[in-house]
Amino acid sequence: MSTTSTSATTASGSQERHGAELVFDSVSKRYAAKGRPAVDSLSLNIPAGETVMFVGPSGCGKTTSLKMINRLIEPTSGTITIDGEDIRSKDVDTLRRSIGYVIQGGSLFPHMSVRDNIAMVPRLLKWDKSRIDARVEELLEMVSLEPGRYADRYPRELSGGQQQRVGVARGLAADPPVVLMDEPFGAVDPITRQRLQDELLSIQRELGKTIVCVTHDIDEAIKLGDRILILQEGAQIAQYDTPENILAAPANEFVEDFVGAGSSLKALSLSRVDEVELQETTTARVGEDARAALARARSAGDRGVVILDDRHRPIAWPSLRELQYMDRIPATRDDRLPVVDRRATLNDALDEMLAASQDGIIVTGQRDDYRGIVRFEQVTAYVQEANRNAERAAMSRLSTQEQQRVDAEQPSGATVDADRERVEPDATAEDLR
Amino acid sequence: MWPFIAERWQDIAYRMYQHTSLVVQSVVLATIIAILLALLVTSRRSLVPFANAISSVGLTIPSFALLGLLLPLVGIGAIPSVVAVTFYAVLPILRNAVVGLDGVNPALVESARGMGMSPLMTFLRVRLPLAWPVILAGLRISTQMSMGVAAIAAYALGPGLGGYIFTGLAQVGGANAINYALVGTLGVILLALLLDALLVLVGRLTTSKGIRV
Questions:
Q1: What's the rounded mean pLDDT across residues B119-142?
Q2: Each residue of B81-100: pLDDT tens digit?
Q3: Would an 8 Å CB–CB cutoff place A187 in contact with chain B?
Q4: A254 φψ region: left (φ > 0), alpha (ψ -120 to 50), beta (else)
Q5: Tens of pLDDT along B39-58?
Q6: Considering only CB atoms, which chain A residues are within 8 Å of B211?
Q7: Please, which pLDDT band fits residue A33 given cuts at 50, 70 and 90?
Q8: Does the beta carbon of A394 lie under 8 angstroms from any beta carbon of chain B?
Q9: Which of A70, A121, A154 sits opposite B210 (nearest CB)?
Q10: Which residues of chain A are within 8 Å of residue B136 when distances are taken between CB atoms?
């Protein structure tokens, strides 16, 4: 499914540049005053088009590492290359104009309209006016803000979430191959944050930029990252791997502590909504005859009807009882509509359901178009299943470890106590539970 | 008083024009000097308390005394008036410009630099517009004050309404003493109010809607 949708957007003529490869080669940063370097010989390879999350405790050097990429901080030694080109070979402002930069709260210029904020880098690059206008509209659409309504507003006339959306749009404005994000969603409430993350996933699916994102939130890292870089003090790499591998096999105690969470919670934040089979439900278009929709829902045995706007985006999910009193399907948008992106985690889906007190959630795909729904029971069933698998895996891992221990104790391996071997791992697994 | 005004309204109008011209030119000059100084000061953080001290202490120097000190250096006439008025006009603007530029969220400055704006562009497009309302408040204070200082400048034979005030004071008890002093003083007040209204208008026009209070 995902491949078809991706190729469809590419075919529809998107001219976006894709990501570039980013390489750190033994990069160090030493502030003269302090003895210990903030970043100590960091070597790292970030493949083109991937999202890499830098996480770690505060003061571990993750932000310093990020800011060395656009030279807001100059490394003391070592080199950073983008697509093989040393970042110091270009003029610093030229370099920065080719790298998107998104920081906490959006950091919009309060004295400039949304349009002027987004147009900043394209203007620095001296694009012509019509191209800039078209680009601003395109980007606002992309971050789900209606250009006609929002382009000429000032940042203070927007909510925190909307400001952050504009911040993301501004970072993408000149279509940079590399985008740096520094705690991009740190300043918004959890529900908004989850939606912004979903949108970023959806945008990234479309654009395939190389994104480097600093966060202190391991759940965010697991959700957004193709890879996660866990850093210890001095930007020492504790582990650099996919979220799945980090959760399944933490490299050391530090990572284990940092990742935390029990196995079922891990399953929730690792599993994406589209891993659960999406269910169909009755849908209706705005302006359609409400009675016909009601009849369809009754015959399908659904408890509600998902209302879609003219661009196939869900806007409300009234129950059959609410629908009874309507003639035509109204265009009112429900702000508390429980909706997640298909790449959102089950964790988010549950959050949304609880927040909206609904036992189901609407799933959207590219540009918020409707894909189907997921019910609460499906999520719990999925988690139980995942738990059983995790336990089985834990058990087999324990027994292998046990086997290795036994093998080590008795190198000859001649008289292995068969009973002990079978009983002990079971007991351990029991304790774990 | 009316016959007094009617008799010499052309002279009064001319003096009012001179007075305004002196103040406006000095304040414009002072604004440029103050913003440049503030830019220097805010780029070296250790200078900030120093600048604040100068702008407060500077204001305690009596303008009369300063004029007296300037006379041997620049002679009499328009120049010492401009120097003295500019000197005082710089101080409140400098103070506000330092506060205003300092108050710009560092994250915004970093964001601007991170997007590839040069330091000069960051100053002109981000820091200055954001600090502008505060600087403008300083400019208004400065203009009001300069009106008074410019009147004193008449002591150095500078242009403007100050001449009337001094004439009035010199002829205390004389026929037109009160008229001279009153016309001079009221003229200064009237001009101050007009200029302030003008500055409020300028403020409306030059402050972005996004940061207007």
A1: 94
A2: 888 899 989 999 999 999 99
A3: no
A4: alpha
A5: 999 888 888 888 888 888 88
A6: 110-111, 156
A7: low
A8: no
A9: A154
A10: none
| Mean pLDDT calculated for residue range B157-177 | 82
What residue type is B1 in one-letter code? M
Per the listing, tokens 């953080």 go with B45
The identity of residue B31, as a single letter, is T
Give me the mean pLDDT over the A143-149 stretch. 90
Among A81, A156, A77, A72, which Cα is nearest to A117's?
A156
pLDDT above 80: residue A418: no
For residues B132 and B212, the answer to whether their CB atoms sit within 8 Å is no
Task: Look at residue A414 and tell me whether its pLDDT is greater than 50.
Answer: no
Pairwise CA distance, residues A20 & A391, whole Å:
40
Nearest to B129 among A95, A97, A111 (CB): A111
Range of the domain at B46: 2-211
- Do residues B97 and B138 make contact, with C-beta atoms less than 8 angstroms apart? yes
**Partner residues linked to A85 by β-bridges:** A82
* ipTM surpasses cut 0.90: no
Contact B210, A110 (CB under 8 A): yes
The pTM assigned to this predicted structure is 0.74
Distances (CA, A) of B196 to A119, A305, B23, B33, B192: 36, 62, 12, 21, 6
* Domain count of the fold of chain B: 1
Q: Contact at 8 Å (CB) between A399 and A418?
A: no
The domain that contains B40 carries what CATH number?
1.10.3720.10
Q: Is the Cβ of A272 closer than 8 Å to some Cβ of chain B?
A: no
Residues found in chain B:
213
Output B192 or A347, whichever has higher pLDDT.
B192
The minimal CB distance from A121 to the residues B113, B116, B210 is found for B116
Chain-centroid distance of CA A379 in Å reads 20
User: For residue A182, which residues of chain B lie inside 8 Å, CB to CB?
Assistant: none
CB A22 within 8 A of CB A69: yes
Q: Is the pLDDT of residue A337 over 70?
A: yes
